[in-house]
Amino acid sequence: GTAGFHEVAAEIFDDALKTDNRRFLSVEALARFPVLCLDGAPAPGPFPGGADLLRMALDPRDRDRPDLRGVIEAEVLPLAEAGPGSLRGVRCVVLVDPPAISESLARDLAEFVRAGGGLLVTLGPRSSPEALNERGYAGGSGLLPARVLGLKGDPADREKSVRLRGSVYEHPALLPFNDPGRGNQGAVRVH
Fold this sequence. Notes:
The structure is a single chain. By secondary structure, this protein is an alpha/beta fold. The chain has three helices and eight strands; from the N terminus they run βββαββαβαββ. The protein has a four-stranded parallel beta sheet, sandwiched between helices. Strands 1-2 form a two-stranded antiparallel sheet. Strand 5 (92-96), helix 2 and strand 6 (118-122) form a beta-alpha-beta unit. The longest helix is centred in the middle third of the chain and has 12 residues, at 103-114. The radius of gyration is 20 Å and the shape is globular.
């Protein structure tokens, strides 16, 4: 397909009320979807940290072959280096294990979200519920929809982790996830 706006029509079988059997919609197909992963806990050594692994999952392209790229183009920036202009040209920001959000970044993110940008916050061992609540939740007027109560579980203790419930999917778009060779969400441990 091509990028741009496209018209979509959906029609169901006739029933007693024919006027609601067809729907039309205009959708935008994107040529690229830039994602910025702001890393609150950059890995100190040669091995990738959480934000790097997320970037590879979202954007597994070979950096040496720009001709073989997908729609999602993910980049990682240490949270401490985020400044004015960091969010320019980005469609979605992922805060990865943020220990705190500076006042200026909170302001930039609020403006970014108001302008239609996406925001995902993932917590980790460096995340500070108090600091995130101060600027992220801000008494209900901030970016976060609820207060962060704290982290649960212990990555070093398998008994104190939570597992995702495995599901059998029936929707055609999700059928590939029923194949155990593609992974098992029920084996994922969440801390």
